[in-house]
Amino acid sequence: MATSIQWLNDVEMRAWRSILSAHSQLYNQLDEELLRAHGITFAEYEVLVHTSEGEGGSVRMASLAEAALVSRSGLTRRVQHLVAVGLLERKRCKEDKRGTFAVLTPLGWEKLKAAAVTHIRGVREHMISKLSHSELEALACALEKVVVQNNG
C-alpha cells in the first residue's frame, strides 16, 4: 500500500532550511572562536556552563547529559577530556554510590569566566546584532513553541 506524503511548501522549506543553516553557522562560528581563544569547543563550553549552574558548581552526570543535549557516551568523552585538562573533577554521590557528579575545579571556573566573554561577544555579533528586538521576541516565541510541543 502506497503512502502519500505532504511535501513541504516553499515557506515551510525556507523556514526549515533557515533553522538548519543558522544553527550550523552559529555553532561553527562560536566553536571556532572558543577553540581559538580558549582551547575548548562549544560543546565543552556548554558542559562547563551547565555544571556551573548546579549547586556549588556540581551537577549529576545524568542531569548534565540532558541539559547539554548530548548522548551519555558523548558526554562521557567530553567530561573525560575536561577532567584530563583539569577543568572538571568526577565525584561519587555520597547518598547514591551509583551516581556521579561533575564538579568544576578552580581552573574550570577561570576558564568558564574567560570563555563566557568570548561566547557572549560571539552570540551578540553573529546573531543578536542581526535582529531587532521584535524579531528576537518572535523567534524566541516560535522556537519555544516548537520545543514545548515536542517535549509535551
Secondary structure elements and their pairing?
Layout: H1 10-38, H2 42-52, E1 58-60, H3 61-67, H4 72-84, E2 88-92, E3 100-104, H5 106-126, H6 133-151
Antiparallel strand pairs: 1-3, 2-3
Any overview of this molecule?
With 152 residues, the protein is mainly alpha-helical. It has a single domain (32-145), classed as Arc Repressor Mutant, subunit A. It is built from 6 helices and 3 strands; from the N terminus they run ααβααββαα. It has helices at 10-38, 42-52, 61-67, 72-84, 106-126, 133-151; strands at 58-60, 88-92, 100-104. Strands 1-3-2 form a 3-stranded antiparallel beta sheet. Helix 2 crosses helix 5. The mean pLDDT is 93.
> Unreliable stretches, pLDDT < 50, 5 or more residues?
none
Shape category: globular
| CATH homolog superfamily | Winged helix-like DNA-binding domain superfamily/Winged helix DNA-binding domain
What can be said about the biggest beta sheet?
A: 3 strands, antiparallel
Portion of residues within helices = 55-70%
Succession of helices and strands: HHEHHEEHH
The radius of gyration is 19 Å
Intertermini distance: 32 Å
Largest sheet: spatial strand order: 1-3-2
Q: What is the architecture at the second tier of CATH?
A: Orthogonal Bundle
> What is the tally of helical segments?
6
Provide the CATH topology: Arc Repressor Mutant, subunit A
| Total count of domains | 1
The overall pLDDT, averaged over residues, is 93
Count of distinct strands: 3
How would you sum up this structure in a few lines?
By secondary structure, the chain is mostly helical. The chain has six helices and three strands.
